[in-house]
Amino acid sequence: MWPKVKFIILLILLLILFSPLFIMFYTAFIPQGDPFHLIKMAKITDFEVPSAKFAMFYLKRLMSTVDGAKWKVVEDKDASNMYLEVTIPESGSGLSFTTGNKNMYVVASLAMRMKNTESVKVKVIIKDVFGTEGELPEVEIGSSNSWKEVSIPFDFKKITAVSGKLPDLERSSRIYLLFYPENSKTAKIYIDDLYYKNKFPTLYNFKRVLKYDMFGRYLLNSAIIATSVVLGNIILSSMVGYAFARKKFMMKEFLFAIILGMMMIPPQTTIIPVFILMKKLHWIDTYWALIIPALVTPFGVFLMRQYIEQIPVSLDEAARVDGASDFQIFWRIIMPLSKAPLAVLGINVFIGSWNDLFYPLILTTSKEMRTVQLGLAMYQKLNTDWPSLMAASSIAGLPVIIIYLIFQRKIIEGVLKGAVKG
Fold it and tell me: Domains (ranges, CATH) in the chain?
């Protein structure tokens, strides 16, 4: 009984621990809404007006006729419902509706309740705020004397330009719903509950963030800086740690104590001298300002020194007998035997550099030099759209998760080796 209780408690704790991460990734795939209110359908209109007598005045703000179509609102008192009756001439006509700057990329289809006396072909035309129009493929709808739900798919890969240029589907202004009767001069169509069906899940939020908000450039900047800092720490911190572990020189322990003391100093207290130095070197708003000061860290020196001290000195002595130099001993013996602490050092430095917000905020001035965390901070101030914001957060956090999954065995091995003697 007790093991089952422990398992349940552990499962609950894991769910609590990973729930923010799950909510973030879940929200990134939402077309519209927030984590607790997914909007799968967005209503255009249901034609419920205060009175059928005043429908013309009430609905003219929302829609208009195209090519001679005639419409009126019909009130079904038995069903306590109102719907639209549209008379379509032989040449075809229809209605147009305002979309309110709707982003059509997240729309999967246009749906409505429909009843038609004749088979018709339906064509949808989308117009953007600049007046450019795009046409979707026709859909044939068979006749029906009873209400049915009709869904017109929005396959934007098949959209064709009406005026030689495709519309901006992110900023649509009107949508045209055109009907073409097949067998008679005129046809009557009854429409009710007109709405959009949104795509779920959708990758559009990631596309929007990477394409329009310069997150691709921010990712590149962070990748260059984090990779350079990791390589610098792996090589330089290991060299300094090797010197402290194997060499004897004056004030060795005092200097090492200073390095340990530097671990206690908050980075905020060193930003002013670092900024002055970078300004004197003309490195402000360059990669050098974000890479050079972080190439060696006190934690890296401490970690490598403690681990190298556990490697038997007899290996060094045997190599010296064979004529190896200090650098050859370091590169061919110490480094291959230090893969576990190097993995721990690499992942810690990578996470610290990737998540750093303070130094990039102070040492960069242009938009092109922003790192991903700085770009995300600016994006939060300018954007209140939860799906796009969570997509940006997912993009910022994904590299850290991938790096950890790749090197998790080495990290665990390094922690265990540091905790067990012998």
Answer: 41-199 (2.60.120.430), 207-419 (1.10.3720.10)
